[in-house]
Amino acid sequence: MLTITHAILHIFDGASNEPLLSHVELDKRSPYIHDYIKKKCEKITQTDRMKEGVLTDDSPVKALFDAIQDDFISISQELSLMLSEMIKSNADIPNADLLWACIRGEDQSSYLAMFKLNHQEAMTHHVDYEDQNLKNDLIINQAILPGIKQGIDEGFLYQLDNGHIQILEKKHLIDESGDREFYLSERFLGQAIKASLKENIGIVKKAVSATAKKYAEADYAQLAQAKEVLNQSIVDQGTIDNDVIAESLYRDKPAQMADYLEASSQAGLQNDEKIVADPALMTNRMQKQKLKLDNGIELSIPIELFNDPNSVEIQNNPDGTVSVWLKNIDEIKNMF
């Protein structure tokens, strides 16, 4: 049972371009506030976008995080001012409400949570009077918050007992550098966080495609094999092992193996490191091979059937075209 010990909402107001800091905590006994915070915690921990790391003493916010239970309101205000200054100084970072909470988990571990609730536009009604007559109007509300079931783009859970942090973040254009940066980790937390499962899978995909392109080969077969190796490694061992991926794809092609390893290493996936990957975070797309043909046909094939010659066969024809054979099919359903 998740227990909320403190919760507060601070606002960055887009109209005034200034923060509006609360001096009173939210009612932590409220069922909908409890459920909202619980769901947002799950949105951080139950996605392949989640990144993990440990804050070091070099972080400019670690001391504030560690002391927040003793002075929750003022420290949450100070942290919100730091984030608000980043929002104010960089137009690409969306305006947002900042929801802070101190939480005790089922294992009695203590956490600090921050959910950046980006503002969204939506239509709503507005009751007004015109010449003493009631008038119902439609207006645009520019500060709608994510619903209870909606995900969030940015936020984190920081474990106060050991400094472990789980974070969701997106790159935004930073005016000072002119580059797109993970500002939440690199500037606010003050340290880089290792790539997420989704980012590491993306690195493998791009490196495989780049290697195939360099050697003028179609990448669909190598991408399919890479996905199968990744899926098996994550499910069976809970890791991503880049050396195993390279060996599986390029066992008899040393030059291509070297190019692949260089491309993936430059993107941040080290060859001699086994990266922990939680199988529970894998999305359904990792269980299927998806092919899009140039004639508009799209195929979604269970990964266990893709390499079964009794089910699927991909044939290269002498004229340079490719044929895809689907075999031993008893029934076809139209998923209208």
Automatic annotation (TrEMBL):
Top-level taxon in the UniProt lineage: Bacteria
Pfam families: NA37
This protein's GO CC annotations: nucleoid
Protein name according to UniProt: Nucleoid-associated protein
